Amino acid sequence: ISAYVHAGQDPQQAFDTGASWGTWHTTAIEWTPKRLSFFLDGKLIGTTTQGVPNVPMDWIIQNESALNGESAAPDSSAQIDIAAVSVYAYTP
Q1: Can you say how many angstroms the Cα of residue 62 is from the centroid of all Cα atoms in its chain?
Q2: Phi, psi dihedral angles at 74 (to 5 degrees)
Q3: Between 19 and 76, the higher pLDDT residue
Q4: Residue 3: is it exposed, middle or buried by C-beta count within 10 angstroms (0-12/13-18/19+)?
Q5: Is 52 in contact with 11 (CB distance < 8 Å)?
């Protein structure tokens, strides 16, 4: 499980947890005007002050079926189950 910041930076910012998709987890993104912080199961996995959006962000939640190479092997699949999603407004 990883978090990424795609803000036109090369390389992109990546925060890897080493955690498996094999059990349920709680993830969170904290977005303030000057900082992005990423959490897994209540623990901070990464924070940055670079590439922080000043316009609305898009959420991309994905699970890869091709980890090595450009395309997935025939008959491969990936599944992710999401129990709930919440969004809160930032109030300074």
Answers
A1: 9
A2: -55, 140
A3: 19
A4: buried
A5: no
